[in-house]
Amino acid sequence: MQISSRFTVALHIFTCVDTFKDEHKVTSDFLAASINTNPVIIRKILTQLKNAGLINVIRGTGGIELTRDLKDITFYDVYQAIEPLEDGNLFRFHESPNPECPVGRNIHSLLDDKLKDIQEAMESEMKKYTLNDLRSGMQELLAKEA
User: Which GO-annotated molecular functions does the record name (predicted)?
Assistant: First the structure.
C-alpha cells in the first residue's frame, strides 16, 4: 500500500505558507505554481486541511493561515487530515478468505497483530515530526543556498 502524494503536497503547502507568509499572499494559484500542479488539486487538499481544523482559508486572494503553531501540528495530524483510513486500518484485508483452506481460515490470526503493530509504529514515527521541523529544515537549506 502506498500513501498518496496528497500527503507530501500537504506538507509542501504548510512549508510554503510558513516560508512566504510575510512576502506573498499564499493562494491556491501561488501554491500550485510551487508544487507544479493544478490549483483545483490544491483547493481540494486545502479543504481537507480546513475540515481537519489545521488551517483557515480566506476566500478570494486572502490567503491561508494556520490555526495552531507549527510545533503543535505533527505529520500524523496532516496524515489524518489527508489520508483518512477506512475503519482506522492502514492495511485493507481481503474480505473472504476461504475457511475450507488451512491458510485461508488462519490468515487473520497470522497477520492481524503484525499489521496493527506496523501501523502503530508508522503512526508513532509520524507523531515525532512537526511542521516546525519543516521550518527549521527549510531555513537551513535556504541558508546554504544564500
Answer: DNA-binding transcription factor activity
